[in-house]
Each structure stands twice: as structure tokens, then as C-alpha cells.
Amino acid sequence: MSVVVADASLCYDCWHSNNWSGVLPHQTPAIFSLARIVLLALVITTAFGYSITSANGRALLVSSQEQGPYRIDVSILPGQAVVANTHVSIRVLSLANGDPITEATVTISAIGPEGSSPLGPIPAPNDFTPQFFETDVPFDLPGEWDMTVAVVSGLGDADVVVPMNVKQGGGSINWILMAALAVVIVTVGVWTWDRVIGRKQPGENLEENSG
Q1: Do 123 and 135 form a contact (C-beta atoms < 8 A)?
Q2: Which of 146, 135, 60, 67 has its CA nearest to residue 101?
Q3: What is the value of pTM for the model shown?
Q4: Which of 50, 67, 91, 106 would be 158's cystine partner, CB 3.0–4.6 Å?
Q5: pLDDT tens per residue, range 154-174
Q6: Which domains does the chain show, CATH number per domain?
């Protein structure tokens, strides 16, 4: 039994006397630690971006019209159409059975006040959610606009005109960009702290525990 203790003590003395390289045995390689932190940062950024979008509220329904074989619902985000920053969401329903139309070509055109530039036709794809055809409409001047939504599908062609009172959008902070910047700062901080802790000598931990 005494031989085993002597060997263990000798092994500890030899190990403790060696120059410490700063890398713990079986330490996770630096690249994997960084990848883990970056992945966590991306998840946080995505969640934060989602919360910001939710904070803006859902799209506001501004028009629901029956035309040809369709009922065409038009919603906007934010709730007030603004210059250069209006997201339009369109839902097309079959008047025959009320089912949403998911296979169609939807475009948006718009004519505004004097001095404005006519817009469109702007494609509104439904790549993200099949039931909603979406796009951004870059109104260039405030005032009264007539926005035309055109639908083409196997059921036929139809279009509706939606009056839009466009306001001048106020300057706003790009919160998602700010969130991304904050996540980068936090990521660098966590990475640096992880490296500092990783360089701590095991002898220091043993001395703390013995004390």
C-alpha cells in the first residue's frame, strides 16, 4: 500500500514540476469551443430578432375584396403604410370553397401622388408561407397611393385596387443589427473568459482545494 502512495506522490511531483503548457488534459480544442459559442450566439440573435418582429405587432388587414373567383385579403406591416418600409402580405381564397390558393402568381403595382415614381409590377412570392404572398413595397413619397394587387392562377385572373395613405416613416434604430452587434461582443467576451479559465494551472486548483 505504501508503494502505491509513493508512486502517486512521485507522479504528482514530476507532473507538477513540468512547465505548464496552458492546455488541460482532454481539453476541448479551441475551434470546437468557439464553434459552440458562435452557434449559441446565432440562436440568441435569431430569438431576439423574432421578439423584435413580434413587438412590432402582426400585419394589419387593410382590404378584403371579392373579385372574380377570389377573395383577396391585403395586410401591411407596420399598421401604417410608410415611405420605403412597407411590407405587404396577401392571402388569396377561393370563393367556391374558401380554401387558400397557394399556386398562383401575385404581383403588386402602385401609382402615387405627383412627383412619385410608379411601382411594379413587383412579384409577391409565397416561399416562406404557402398561404401568404409577401413582398416589400418601396413607396418613395408620402401621400395617397393606389396599389393594385393582381392574381393569376388556374382559376382565372383578377385584380383589386387598394387605396393607401402613405406617411413619412420616422428614423428608427435597426434593433436587429444592434442585437447582432451585442451578440458579437458577448461572444468575444465569453470566448476570452473561456480561454483565460482554460489557462489556469491545475496546481492552483489543488492549492485552493487543500486550503
Answers
A1: yes
A2: 67
A3: 0.56
A4: 67
A5: 999 999 999 999 998 754 444
A6: 58-166 (2.60.40.2480)
CB-based contact 171:142 (threshold 8 Å): no
Residues near 89 by beta carbon (within 8 Å), at least 6 away in sequence: 59, 74, 75, 76, 77, 132, 133, 134
Please check whether residue 66 is in contact with residue 74, taking contact to mean a CB–CB distance below 8 angstroms. no
Helices 30-55, 175-198: crossing angle, 10 deg rounding = 150
Beta-carbon contacts of 183 under 8 Å, excluding residues fewer than 6 positions away, are 41, 42, 44, 45, 48
Of 154, 160, 62, 152, the C-alpha closest to 109 is 160
Query: How many CA atoms are closer than 13 Å to the CA of 201, on its beta-carbon side?
Result: 11
